[in-house]
Design a protein that fits this description.
With about 260 residues, the protein is α/β, with parallel strands linked by helices. About 30% of the residues lie in helices and about 20% in strands.
């Protein structure tokens, strides 16, 4: 079985849709979508993912199923529950509400000066006990996502058993999931058996890029998932369209026009 994770096009977060560039990106992906041999399509309920999928669905002529758990990984850090040292992980992002309390922040958008000094975040078990996670709903949200993801894989013939998957009924289907960077990282962390902070902090996937994962059954009845490519943007290269910068931060600190 093959899983294709498509990130949405360049986002307009204000309206939860696509920018004009994002629509161009989604159109270029749609021009190549039939080459993937897709059998089933699933999507996030968020507008930017649905809008991206709509271009490809017109070409594929396939039905689409929407899963709420495919929305962007919604875990939030609550600065009001954390120590000052832990709040420093989000020092460039913290804002206060009218009453003086801190606003909650996306849990994985933290400063390198913090996470590189807290290796527990990258331990496959210890990340759950870190103060960042303890001051958030990350573990609860993560567990809900992987429960649904494992259930989805089981419905397709692969049942989680420890760190591998038992093959109940193998298949050669190609399954497309139109979703988001963060949620894709969470699903990859489950398949790779690593802390979700590993891919969240060290990968970037450009808008409309494809990440491809396939089953590998070297032993009868046992499967693992092998990642063949991450963040591929060949369809943009073919269309002479430069990738969006979304999902990345400044390449050099002095690059003031890039996101910091």
């Amino acid at each position: 079985m093959r899983l294709l994770f498509f990130r949405h096009g360049d986002p307009d977060y204000v309206v939860d849709g696509l920018t004009d560039k994002g629509k161009i990106e989604a159109g270029l992906l749609a021009e190549q979508i039939k080459s993937f041999g897709i059998d089933e399509v699933y999507q996030s309920p968020l507008g930017r993912a649905r809008d991206t999928a709509s271009f490809s669905l017109k070409e594929l002529g396939l039905p689409v199923t929407t899963f709420d758990w495919l929305m962007e990984f919604p875990a939030l850090f609550d600065p009001n529950k954390a120590s000052e040292e832990t709040r420093s992980a989000y020092k460039n992002e913290l804002k206060k509400e009218e009453g003086g309390a801190f606003e909650k922040r996306i849990v994985w958008d933290m400063m390198p000066s913090y996470y590189m000094n807290h290796p527990e975040l990258f331990d496959r078990n210890a990340w759950r006990r870190s103060e960042v996670v303890s001051s958030s709903n990350a573990a609860t949200v993560y567990d809900n996502v992987i429960k649904n993801f494992d259930g989805f894989l089981e419905e397709h013939g692969y049942k989680r058993d420890g760190d591998i998957y038992k093959v109940i009924e193998s298949n050669d289907k190609t399954i497309a999931l139109f979703c988001h960077f963060g949620i894709t990282c969470v699903m990859l962390s489950r398949l790779w058996n690593v802390s979700p902070f590993m891919p969240l902090q060290f990968l970037a996937m450009a808008p409309t890029s494809v990440t491809e994962v396939v089953t590998e059954e070297r032993e009868k009845g046992i499967a693992i998932f092998r990642t063949l490519r991450v963040g591929d943007i060949t369809h943009l290269t073919i269309g002479n369209e430069a990738p969006s910068f979304s999902a990345r931060f400044c390449e050099r600190f002095e690059n003031e026009e890039e996101r910091h």
